[in-house]
Amino acid sequence: MVAATAVALLAGCTSTVQGTASPAPTSATTSPGSTATATPSAAPTGQVTPAPAVGPGTGAEARRIAAVTSLIPLISPERTGSCFPSGPFGSASGVDGLYFGDGRVGQELDRWGFVAGWGNCGQDAANNGTLLLVAEMSDPDSAAAAADTLNGISLELESGGYEPVDLPDLGVTGALSTGGSDSAGAPTDTVQVWVPSGRMLAYAYLDAPAGGAPDLVTRQLTDQLGLLQGFAPTPQDQVPGLPTDPLGLAPFAVQTPGDATRFTGSYDLEGYLRLAIDPVVERQLLTANGFSGAYYRTSYDEAAGLDFAVSLYTFPTSAQTNAVYTGFAQLEATAFGGTAFALPAIPEAPCFAFDGGGGSFYQRCYVGYGSYLASIDVLGLAAADDYAQMNTLLPQQRDLIDG
Predict the structure, then answer these.
(1) pLDDT tens digits, residue range 129-142?
(2) Does residue 85 sit in the same domain as residue 220?
(3) CB atoms < 10 A from the CB of 248, how many?
(4) 3-state secondary structure of 389
(5) Residue 112 belongs to what domain range?
(6) 185 — alpha (psi -120 to 50), left (phi > 0) or beta?
(7) Which CATH number do you get for residue 106?
């Protein structure tokens, strides 16, 4: 099942609180939001192709990139907790604002034709995190030039005490900071590095036990580069025309209150798994039942202070829908620690409440009919038994899919 989403920024997990595995500010003397500039890198051979205007096609391309972004728990099985930031990016400034904060990285990405990107983040119980970003650039020369300059910027992180670290298996020199510690007090090192692959640019920032960061980042990015080998970026002039809802699922996903977030859109299996709580288990369940695609709609209602998410899945037959319906309900109750409750509006629906910490709760309920399965999340509730929103939304969702 899709992880709960917190205020348009990240996919959260039902069994963990959101973390903070984000890079340090890019300068000890530059405040977030400043316009400091990096030393420009040499112009590549040929002309940088301008990125298309940000639009629905940009989001579709970002979700294509999601499908080839490395799944962190496959390399670090203990890093299953959610952390910041993650999800789709349609602008270099968006990347900079959530990952870095002083403008220099965004300027460099824009300089070399940034089109779209996707980020994944995972952390362990001691807050050791891995943060990945995959960005689509103008052309291979531009991606390589951007990597050179961005690796140089990483070494300027005075507050982190970064020093060069040779990563021969990746063919680049990254930035390593030593002498840190995790939330359990164990000594750690931090490494970050940019690596080009054709038009694509991969970035990793991670913490590891002292002495282990170069090996871990090499293994993570080796997996990442392997996934990119089979990926064909969309030519820039074709991005605006990319189908944004190829299966026509959007009309069957209930409109949730508030403004839609950047996660909203259609996902194939691999793209969906980048939002899933347990991608290994869910891959098995969905592929065994002929998963055809998903539509994910998230929104934030500022007035109510609530986040909402609807996840709509489609399968070839009602029998397969029912199998996944049952499988998800079992996972919620067992693997993810949900507390079952009966929703007054639809008592037979599988519904679960979770303690989000800090006096905040969220609810998730499922409905299914025919080839469609849907779940609805309501996050930010002051009480686990506040059913007002779910009592309205779940019947609306049921009516949409049962015709």
Answers:
(1) 999 999 999 999 99
(2) yes
(3) 12
(4) helix
(5) 56-238
(6) left
(7) 3.40.1000
